[in-house]
């Protein structure tokens, strides 16, 4: 009985429900003692902040919950109770009864991570600042024996609960191919309390099976998501403008997200009369919080943001180019093609390693490590 979990909600994070046993009740009764002298009706009594009385209520509530758990374990093999609801009743003879209701269920730990051999996170390469939600990341669950599943991470800049979203999806592969699926619908989002802040809600969608004419899902590098409609609270939202596509490579976008958060699509920078937020929204310089994502402006970068981003992508291109080469000597030759684009001292250093190679053996590993350290942080 001890390990029966209970919640007023209807699910447990990391578990799924495998069996419902129906609604069960637990009841406890106590005398109100001196409280009865108040001769107030029940709703008045609830409004009174009387410590002794509240303590009494807590105890009787605890008793009722124990009674509910006993009742459930006597009649079922349930290991959890969901939708727990507590009712108080007062009787004429100064007795208070507490009745606790809940649905007994059997829950099991999600085995999703064990069942899928590969979990692949891919950034979303476009965004739309005319809506206050932002799909940021697509997670693919890949297995040799099961259909691939996709789960979306969506940021919301509104306090209203996101309940559904309709969108077109494009999946981009490492080899430059693109596969499209139109009018997908997600209707089950859970808010991630750990990642959410006061102003930004982080949502995880349900995991939905996805079929694509692609032989290996491991080749997926990024996705584009064109939101068509979404439901937030009671309202249906639609974008007023077309999407903006991120203008730099996946590797640079991942760096940005590490710095500013998963919804980031831009450096934070100032121009003469606006500042651009990490979410991509251009704000007037008089504002110190972003009007879309409510981020504080904080420190803006010096210099041209496009230049910083291009620097990222150049360094990553160079790293990609030199990775398959066999020696410091070959890497030096490769780098010389970028003379003028990268600082001379980098080339000089690699030149030294190439010279040392005759004495110390292959220096490829040292070269790559050095080049990785030179990446802008
Ligand atoms: Zn913003």
Automatic annotation (TrEMBL):
<dbReference type="InterPro" id="IPR002765">
    <property type="entry name" value="UPF0145_YbjQ-like"/>
</dbReference>
<comment type="similarity">
    <text>Belongs to the UPF0145 family.</text>
</comment>
<protein>
    <submittedName>
        <fullName>Heavy metal-binding domain-containing protein</fullName>
    </submittedName>
</protein>
<dbReference type="Pfam" id="PF01906">
    <property type="entry name" value="YbjQ_1"/>
</dbReference>
<dbReference type="InterPro" id="IPR035439">
    <property type="entry name" value="UPF0145_dom_sf"/>
</dbReference>
